[in-house]
Amino acid sequence: MISPNLIYYSFILFFTITIIIKVILLILNIKNIKRNYSDVPNEFQSIISLDDHQKAQNYTVAKNKLSITSIIIESIVLIVWLETGLLNQLLSIIAQVSSSPVMQGVCFIFAFMLISSIFSLPESLYSTFVIEEKFGFNKMTPALFLKDMLKQFLLAAIIGLPFLFITLKILYGLGSLWWLYTWAFIIVFQFIMIWAYPKFIAPLFNKFTKMEDEELIQNINSLSDRCDVNFKDYYIMNASIRSSHGNAYFTGFGKNKRIVFFDTLLKSLEQNEVVSVLAHELGHLKRKHILKSIILSSLFMLAGLFVLGQLYIMPSFFQAFNFQSNEPYLAMLLFMLISPFYTFLLTPFFSWLSRRNEFEADEFAATFASAKALITALLKMYKDNSSTLTPHPVYSKFYFSHPPAKERIEFLNSFPS
Question: Which among 132, 273, 327, 362 is annotated as catalytic?
Fold first, then answer.
């Protein structure tokens, strides 16, 4: 049996390591950005002006400073939850709602998530209406922000509450292997959500219209034929109602499979550049990156549920944090709160995997479309999104899901134009 002290002090150790590394990496990134504030890297001087470069540096520094503040505040809030008995108090309040452990668990976890979302609201408001507004990216109005928030709450209730109920039903009703059945349920649930998202959820927040530019459609169809993929329709999303940032993405599967372009992206790119960006997204599909990511995350989730399946029957797990109840749903919430600190050091590994996938997708785009067009598209996107061209190398290795601009452009330049 693992002792309560071992559980508690191991958490404190990993918690401290995580916070220190996060803050140090952000400080290193800020210093490196400031160090390169006055000079545009040679590779980008023909495309990125000094004013655009400095805007990107200032924007990234502002976001990084907010991240440091958020890390500190979130850490304090978590310690307060765990050390002051607030979770015990919330538990005692919820226990009066129902005598059913399953219903208590649903209400307890949902109430905690709701309170946590309220705590995170100031950060979201500051990010949207101060930082994004200051640098000219925000198109969100307070009314739209509130409307989005209400929709998110309703979706969380409509989808999240039944999900919690079924999960806890499995936990309480299917014996010691509940974690395996829960894993199977979550896998099925994820595929249902992937299928439903483009048709039923995304339209609640944005308007999607079929692309009408016949010349661009013809070019995209030609690319699809070369790549041996089949899409019936291409959609444009009115992303400009919230932000001027541009992007494109692939979503759904089966008959709900879609390619979606932000309207902001189409306004800034030439047709051959749009086709190259799409070729990159199709590269993820054809190289099975999406499927591989789902499999990897599913295995990771299975391991986590297995560990939880061992912990929730240990009284020491609850004693470590001075909890008065040994209810399994409390173990579930506790595990959700503390496990990210134990897995944080895996971050650079998953970032490396993601960057490797991005290089493969770029290679696919260079093969089936144009490396040169993708380079010019990326440069415009770096400029329009104010992406820093000079992140700290350690920071980018640790966090970046995409290769830094310099590495990515150098890689694409190795292909014929």
Answer: 362
